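Hey,
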Amino acid sequence: MSLVEDKLYKTIKNAVGRAIADFSLIDEGDRIAVAVSGGKDSYALLHILEALRKRAPVRFEIVAVNIDSGYPGYRSDIIERHLGEHGFAHHMEKTNHYGIIKEKRRPGSSYCSMCARLKRGVLYTLAQQFGCNKLALGHHMDDFVETLLLNQFFVGSLKAMAAKMLADNGKTTVIRPLVYVEEKHIVNFSAINGFPVVCCRCPVCGVADLQRKRMKSLLAELEKENPSVKRSMLRALSNVQPRHLLDTSLSV
């Protein structure tokens, strides 16, 4: 089954291509590990990167990597079948993260943050194991903007995400090619193409991260008056004016 190459497909593909060019995300000879969780975002990222790879002026390779955290009921078999049917090179990694989280998590602390840290460490290791110099993650425009607001409102810092950054291991470069793609477009793209979305089966799935949900609601309300508010906020991340901030370390 091939992708439905409609207007939405072209919109997303062009946005990813623009991000790759703007941030120099992919170079000749890259081997990229694409984190595939079974969610709409990672499926979209994988398929769009493959479509671009086939026509790209530079040669690069991709390999899909899935982390099974051990949550009861997680259907990694559905993901693996999809990857195989579409001919993707892939690796499925089984872990006991669920057991570790149950044992180590402090009462009242976030399930998601600990799970994400554990997954990220395994992804870095697998990227090295499979000779990948880059790791592609499926964060989209909404993730960038929501993270910016969360850090401002609840952490007291002015930061979001980077489209490209060297990981803490000093070896793997993390890239986020969906930075210019809105979540609503990914939702529709996933539905049109019938991606077999799989729930992570985390015990707090759907109820965790209430603060992020509040940011989504706030942005939805702001969009009623300014439909371009998310794009404007994303542009702000590329238009920093240090002289007009209060960080004394930036003073000349």
